[in-house]
C-alpha cells in the first residue's frame, strides 16, 4: 500500500466550511453506525436509514459503515471492550477529565479532541468509476486539485499541496494516478485548523524471483539491547554467515524519528538479502498480553510497546522485500531463543540473539530441531536430591536478589515435569501419565536445569561453558 499525504488549500473560506460540514456529518454517521453495529443492525438496514438522517450519498454512508465495522473488529482483536471505544482518542478524553487542566490549555486540548472526533471523511476507490467517485484527483493547468462531492451534483475543488516545490515527486505521482484511472482511497483529516488528505493506492508487487531455494536469512529483533540479529543459511539449513545491526534510535525519540529509522533498518536487511540472493524469514508477532486493565498499561507496557514497534519494523521489511521480488516467510517464534541459546550458541560460539535468528531461519526452511542426546541423558540422570537442591537454590536467589516471583513459578513447573520422568532413555519425549510433556516442555525444563544454576539472576550472553555438556556429554554437579 502506497500512502501519500497532502495539504488541501481551498479557493475560498466558504468552500472550506462546506467541506468541514461534510466531514462533521460523515464523522457523526460513522459513530452512529458503530453504535448500531453493537446493537446487531445489519449493513443494508443501516445504509438505507443513514442516508436521509445525515444527508449523505450512498457511497459516503457505505464507507462510514465500513470504517465503523473496522473499528469494532480492531477493538475485538486487541481484546478491548467495543463498548468502551472513545472516538477522538481515549488519552485525550482522559486528559480532558482532569480537573487541574483549565484555561487556554483546556481549550486547546478540547479543540484537538474535537478535530479528531469530528474532522474525518473517508472515500473508497472504485475501478469501475475511474479511481474515486466522491473524491477525485483532477489535473488542471494551474495545478493538481481534489474534487470533493459535497451534495447532489455539487462539488468543491481544493488545490493539493503535496510537498515542497523542489521535490515534486509526490505531486507527479498523484498526477499519474489521476491519468491512469487506477482505484485509490482518500481520507480527509482536520488538524490544527487545516485539512489534510491521505491517498492510499494498492501496490502491485513484481514476481517473486528470490526464494528459499538457495537458502534463507533469519531475522531476530531484540528489545534489550535494541538490535537486529541475522543468520544466513544454505538450502540445507547450514549456517553460512551472521551479523548484527544496532538500532539505538528506536529506544527513544519522537514518533516520526523512530518511523524514519524503522524504514532505514528495513532497507538494510532487504539489501543484505538481495546481495546474498536469499529469502527472508521473520517472526510472526502477536500481541496477546494486555495488562490488568486491558489497555496495555502496567509493568509489561514497555515490552508491549517494543512489540508494536518491532511489528511495524517487520511489516516494513515485508513491504520492501516484496518490492524487490524477495520471498518473505513468517514463522512461529515460540522457544526460538531457548533452543538457540542451548543448542547453537555453544556449538557455533555465537550469541543467543544470533542463534535465535538461526533457529528462525531453519524453521523457515521447514526443518525440525532434534534434541541433542547428551541433553536427554543429562536430564535423565537428575536425582530427587539434586532437584530439591536446585529448587532451594532458586528460592534463595529469588528472595535475596529481588527477582520476580513468576520465575520461581516457572521453575517449579519445570521441576515437577522433571520429577515425573522415568530414568529410561527416550522416555522424555513421550506423553507421561497425567502430564502432557511436549518438545517445548523439554526445552523449558532444560533451560531451568542448565541455565539457572549457571546464572540465576539473568540469562547469560556467553554459553561456551555448555559446549562440553552438549557435544561430549560431560557434566558435574547440577
Indicate the topology.
Blueprint: E1 2-10, H1 13-38, H2 43-54, H3 58-77, H4 90-97, H5 103-118, E2 120-123, E3 135-140, E4 143-151, E5 154-161, H6 169-180, E6 185-191, E7 194-201, E8 216-222, E9 227-233, E10 239-246, H7 255-276, E11 279-283, H8 301-323, E12 328-331, H9 336-348, H10 352-364, H11 373-380, H12 384-401, H13 405-419, H14 439-454, H15 467-472
Parallel strand pairs: 8-11, 11-12
Antiparallel strand pairs: 1-5, 1-7, 2-6, 3-4, 4-5, 6-7, 8-9, 9-10
Helix pairs in contact: 1-2, 1-3, 2-3, 4-5, 7-8, 9-10, 12-13, 13-14
Keywords: DNA-binding
Protein name: Transposase
GO molecular function: DNA binding
Task: Label this structure with key terms.
single chain, 478 residues, alpha+beta, Nucleotidyltransferase, domain 5, 3 domains, 7-stranded antiparallel beta sheet, 5-stranded mixed beta sheet, 15 helices, 12 strands, 48% helix, elongated, DNA-binding, DNA binding, Transposase
Question: Any overview of this molecule?
Answer:
There is one protein chain. The protein has 3 domains: 2-201, no CATH class; 212-364, YqgF/RNase H-like domain (Nucleotidyltransferase, domain 5), CATH 3.30.420.140; 373-472, no CATH class. It is built from 15 helices and 12 strands. It has helices spanning 13-38, 43-54, 58-77, 90-97, 103-118, 169-180, 255-276, 301-323, 336-348, 352-364, 373-380, 384-401, 405-419, 439-454, 467-472; strands at residues 2-10, 120-123, 135-140, 143-151, 154-161, 185-191, 194-201, 216-222, 227-233, 239-246, 279-283, 328-331. The protein has a 7-stranded antiparallel beta sheet with strand order 2-6-7-1-5-4-3. β3 (135-140) and β4 (143-151) form a beta hairpin. α13 crosses α14. It is elongated and about 85 Å long. Keywords: DNA-binding. This is Transposase.
